[in-house]
Design goal:
Elements (H helix, E strand, L loop, with lengths): L6 E5 L11 H13 L3 E5 L5 H8 L5 E2 L5 E2 L4 E4 L4 E4 L1 H11 L12 H15 L3 H11 L2 H15 L3 H4 L6 H15 L15 H16 L1 H7 L6 H9 L7
Parallel strand pairs: 1-2
Antiparallel strand pairs: 1-5, 3-4, 5-6
Protein name: GST N-terminal domain-containing protein
Pfam family, one: GST_N_2
InterPro entries: Glutathione_S-Trfase_N, GST_UstS-like_C, Thioredoxin-like_sf
Length: 245
C-alpha cells in the first residue's frame, strides 16, 4: 500500500492547541520539516511509550535507576529503509546520513561535537524545569498526566506543586545569557549558532524555548525580552519548520 509519507514520527500528545509540546520530539519535528521530508505523526500516551517502542523495534535510550531499560520519544520509523531510530540527536545524524541531498543539520562528522554541545547545555537549562514541569503536567491528557506526575515527583522527591517556584527566573536568565554569548561569538549580528546558517543546535535550543512559550505564556512575556529578544527571534526564524503534521 502506497503512503504519502516516508517517515513516522512518534510523539506525545497534549490538550494544548499546538498538541506537540515535548522539547525532545520538537527537535526532531524541526529537523524533519527543515529537510522537507514527508512524514506523519503517531501520537502515543506516556504509559504506552515502552510497549510501542518494543513493538516497532526502537532501542532504549537510557536505563532506569533499577537498571531496567528506559524507552523515550522521539523515535522515527523510516518506511523507505525499515530503520527505527530513537534519541533526537541520533535521529538528526541518521537523517543527514540517509538523505544527503537535503539541507544538513550538522556539519560533516559533527556528531561528537553536538553531543558535547548537549552536555554543555543541559545543566544550563536545569533552572527552567521547576517552572515548566507543573504546567506541563496540566496540559497532558489524563493517562500521560498521571504518569508524568508520578515519575517527576518520584525524581524530585516532592509534589509538583511544591516544586513550582514563585520568584523570578534569575538563574535561568543568567544561563541563557551564557548561551547568548555563544551566538555572539562569531559577531554581534549572529542570528544562529553557526552565524547566518541554521543548524541542529539552533533547533535543539528552540525546542526548549518553544516548550516554555507553550506551557508558561505569562513567563514567556518576560523571557522574550531577554538578551535583546534573542529567544523570541530564534522562534520566529524557525517557526516555518515547526509545522505539526
Amino acid at each position: 500500500m502506497a503512503h504519502n509519507f516516508a517517515i513516522v514520527l512518534y510523539d506525545i500528545p497534549s490538550s494544548h492547541p499546538h498538541n506537540a509540546w515535548s522539547p525532545n520530539t520538537l527537535k526532531t519535528r524541526y529537523a524533519l520539516n527543515y529537510k522537507g521530508l514527508r512524514y506523519m505523526t503517531e501520537w502515543v500516551e506516556y504509559p504506552d511509550i515502552e510497549s510501542v517502542s518494543k513493538d516497532i523495534g526502537a532501542a532504549p535510550t537510557d536505563n532506569k535507576p533499577d537498571g531496567r531499560p528506559h524507552y523515550t520519544f522521539p523515535a522515527i520509523r523510516d518506511l523507505s529503509t525499515e530503520a527505527v531510530i530513537s534519541d533526537s540527536t541520533k535521529i538528526a545524524a541518521y537523517l543527514d546520513r540517509t538523505y544527503p541531498d537535503t539541507p544538513r543539520l550538522m556539519p560533516a562528522h559533527g556528531f561528537g561535537l553536538f553531543r558535547a554541545f548537549e552536555d554543555a547545555v543541559r545543566p544550563l537549562l536545569d533552572p527552567l524545569f521547576p517552572f515548566v514541569l507543573p504546567p506541563t503536567q496540566a496540559i497532558l491528557n489524563p493517562p500521560s498526566g498521571a504518569y508524568f506526575r508520578h515519575t517527576r515527583e518520584e525524581s524530585y522527591g516532592m509534589p509538583l506543586e511544591a516544586l513550582a517556584p514563585t520568584g523570578e527566573a534569575g538563574a535561568a536568565a543568567d544561563n541563557f545569557g551564557k548561551m547568548d554569548e555563544w551566538f555572539r561569538a562569531g559577531g554581534e549580528d549572529g542570528v544562529y549558532m553557526m552565524g547566518n546558517a541554521v543548524c541542529y543546535a539552533d533547533m535543539w535550543l528552540a525546542a526548549y524555548v518553544l516548550w516554555v512559550k507553550l506551557v508558561l505564556p505569562e513567563k514567556w512575556e518576560d523571557i522574550k525580552t531577554w538578551h535583546g529578544g534573542r529567544w523570541a527571534t530564534l522562534l520566529e526564524n524557525l517557526e516555518k519548520y515547526g509545522t505539526v503534521v
